Each structure stands twice: as C-alpha cells, then as structure tokens.
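Appendix C reproduces, verbatim, an entry submitted by the partner laboratory led by Prof. M.T., so that reviewers can inspect both the input and the predicted structure.
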Amino acid sequence: MFGNRERLPPRQSRGYYHEYTVRTPRSRDRGARWIICGGPRRQIGECYYTDDHYVSFTRIAE
C-alpha cells in the first residue's frame, strides 16, 4: 500500500492509493519505476507514474 509520505499526489485517506511495480529491465530488485492508483482496486479513480522512486509523479489516468 502506498502511504503518500512524499505528499506529491493529492492527499487522500489511508488505503486510498495502491502501488504497482513497473518492471525495470536488468534490475535485480523492484526498481524505481512504479504506478500508484487511487480508489477501489476495480474502480480506479486516478493513476500516477514515477520512474525515480517517488521523487516525482506524472498523472497518467483519471
């Protein structure tokens, strides 16, 4: 579960955001690329992408 400690995406109640790993070629761990989505898991309200492990986010869906 994404905790939004960085407070870059809009603040929401605990458990609103869910995080998903984006595979990174040649990486031995989960890497720095993630997608976080807000809302119920089957009714996604908004999604953001980060390729620098939560330093910055780009909105990709609404």
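The domain at 17-61 is CATH 3.10.450.30 (Nuclear Transport Factor 2; Chain: A,). Additional entries are available on request from the coordinating office.
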